[in-house]
Amino acid sequence: MTDQQELWNEETAQQYDTPGEGMFSSDVLGPTVQVLSELAGDGAAVEFAIGTGRVAVPLVEAGVPVSGIELSHAMIRRLRLKADAATIPVVQGDMAEAQVQGEFTLAYLVFNTIANLLTQEEQVRCFQNAARHLAPGGRFVIELWVPQLRSLPPGHGGTVEVSQPGYLLVDSYDVLRQHVTSHHVRFGPGLSDGRDARISRTPHRYIWPSELDLMARIAGFQLESRWADWDRSDFTAESRSHVSVYRLVHR
């Protein structure tokens, strides 16, 4: 728990929050909120790893009651600058274990965050926790990237995922444990005299779509839909990510 709090600290929460830009842009959030709102129907939603409210705040504004679970104290503090506890109740804790009061028609876990759980056992327990929160027939939505192992050159254990002015993202793979460590390298005029760089790292456990479906079945879910993105485009062998919708069929 302490390591995770250090990882998702005040600096990380501040860097994560980019209102109106990047993943906070209306182009990204508009389709996301529309899909989640339709899936919630007349019921309430619970967000696992609610973060700073990137999705929850606009979803509430769209008329869907949202509660959340969040491990990071820093993320919750930043969320509270946008919405009070009466508007968006949040339970601080592990999304594989912590429970929110109430019954929901929708649970969702976006932006690859299930991969923050670093063992298969924890990821299965996350599905089971989602099932505990849902009414019969409720849905659990997961947004997740597809492991890009085909892009690994022979004899190399890493790939450059992003290369842009002032920022590099390099992913290194441990294929035995299905672990990826993302190395975030920030550099440029904002750091000292422009010759320095700042490096931060985030660990993940990647999950194949078929493995994710098996986790869902263990927890009582069935796959209902899978798209390449929130625009409901077709998921193919070339897709780099997916949005998967699971329906609870039994506990």
UniProtKB/TrEMBL annotation:
Residues covered by region (Disordered): 1-21
Any single GO BP term: methylation
Domain Methyltransferase: 46-138
Keywords: Methyltransferase, Transferase
GO MF, any single term: methyltransferase activity
Keyword Protease: no
SUPFAM superfamilies the record matches: S-adenosyl-L-methionine-dependent methyltransferases
UniProt-listed Pfam families: Methyltransf_25 (PF13649)
Bias kind Polar residues: ranges: 1-17
Superkingdom, taxonomy of origin: Bacteria
Keyword field contains Cell wall biogenesis/degradation: no
InterPro entries: Methyltransf_25, SAM-dependent_MTases_sf
Protein known as: SAM-dependent methyltransferase
